């Protein structure tokens, strides 16, 4: 009887050892995926913060390779400086602009425009709009507003410096019609018939958003 039990146990252990060579006996761990492959326990994350896009330049006369152009040196002098940062995070974009060397204690308008800077301020095209106004020029507050467009109006301090920022869910990452930052001569109007207008185009910065 003892011999039969011994042979039976030996058969069980032998079978388990054979199976273990293939899949492991008693619920062994599964083979891990190749390095770099996601697992169910660690799925890919979404909505991560993207690398910031930055444009820094000094304003001067237009030339084909200029990053920043002034069209009115009396209000945006040659040598004035600008630094623009665009940061995408969680479906939102925050744009921050720092300026130095402008006219002290003065208000300016500013927006993101659809085209690169050119020899004249008009070359930058109209304002970027998340939802495009079918009527041009766009002066309807339903379209020309700081949520559908990007408004970055600012007021300089006693040294001619200023900082401004705006954030929204603009779809820059899927669009190709946000190419520049334009400084205007006055704060942006909001009333019907003038909404979105801000006077003359004084200067332009080529930038990515």
Characteristics:
209 residues, mainly beta, Immunoglobulin-like, four-stranded antiparallel beta sheet, 1 helix, 9 strands, globular, disordered N terminus
What do these coordinates show?
The protein has 209 residues and is mainly β. It folds into two domains: 28 residues; 154 residues, Sandwich (Immunoglobulin-like), CATH 2.60.40.200. The chain is 9% helix and 26% strand. The protein is built from one helix and nine strands; from the N terminus they run αβββββββββ. The strands form two sheets. Strands 2-9-8-5-6 form a five-stranded antiparallel β-sheet, with no helix packed on it. The protein has a four-stranded antiparallel β-sheet with strand order 1-3-4-7, with no helix packed on it. A hairpin with a 2-residue loop joins β3 and β4. It is globular, with a radius of gyration of 31 Å. The protein starts with a helix and ends with a strand. 27% of the residues are buried.
Structural class by sheet pairing and helices:
mainly beta
Q: What is the CATH topology assignment of the largest domain? A: Immunoglobulin-like
Average of pLDDT: 84
Give the tally of structural domains: 2
Q: Determine the fraction of residues in helical runs and give it as a percent range.
A: under 10%
Q: Could you give a short account of the major beta sheet?
A: 5 strands, antiparallel
User: Per CATH, which architecture of the largest domain?
Assistant: Sandwich
- Total strands: the figure is 9
Q: What best-fitting shape do the alpha-carbon axes yield?
A: globular
Strand content: 25-35%
CATH class of the largest domain: Mainly Beta
Terminus-to-terminus distance: 84 Å
Strand order of the largest sheet: 2-9-8-5-6
The poorly predicted ranges are 1-46
**Quaternary form:** single chain
C-alpha Rg (nearest Å) = 31 Å
Helix and strand run: HEEEEEEEEE
Q: What count of helical segments does DSSP give?
A: 1
Q: Which superfamily, in CATH terms, is the homologous superfamily of the largest domain? A: Superoxide dismutase, copper/zinc binding domain
């Amino acid at each position: 009887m003892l011999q039969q039990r011994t042979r039976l146990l030996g058969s069980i252990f032998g079978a388990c050892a054979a199976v273990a060579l293939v899949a492991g006996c008693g619920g062994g761990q599964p083979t891990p995926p190749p390095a770099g492959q996601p697992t169910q326990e660690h799925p890919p994350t979404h909505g991560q913060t993207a690398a910031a896009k930055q444009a820094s330049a000094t304003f001067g006369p237009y030339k084909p390779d200029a990053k920043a152009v002034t069209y009115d040196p009396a209000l945006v002098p040659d040598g004035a400086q600008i630094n623009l940062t665009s940061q995408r995070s969680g479906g939102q974009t925050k744009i921050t602009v720092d300026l130095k060397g402008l006219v002290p204690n003065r208000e300016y308008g500013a927006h993101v425009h659809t085209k690169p800077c050119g020899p004249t301020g008009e070359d930058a095209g109209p304002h970027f709009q998340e939802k495009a106004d079918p009527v041009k020029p766009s002066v309807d507050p339903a379209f020309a507003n700081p949520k559908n467009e990007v408004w970055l109006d600012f007021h300089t301090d006693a040294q001619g410096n200023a900082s401004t920022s705006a954030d929204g869910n603009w779809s820059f990452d899927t669009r190709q019609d946000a190419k520049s930052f334009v400084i205007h001569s006055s704060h942006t109007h909001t009333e019907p018939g003038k909404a979105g207008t801000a006077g003359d185009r004084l200067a332009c910065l080529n930038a990515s958003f």
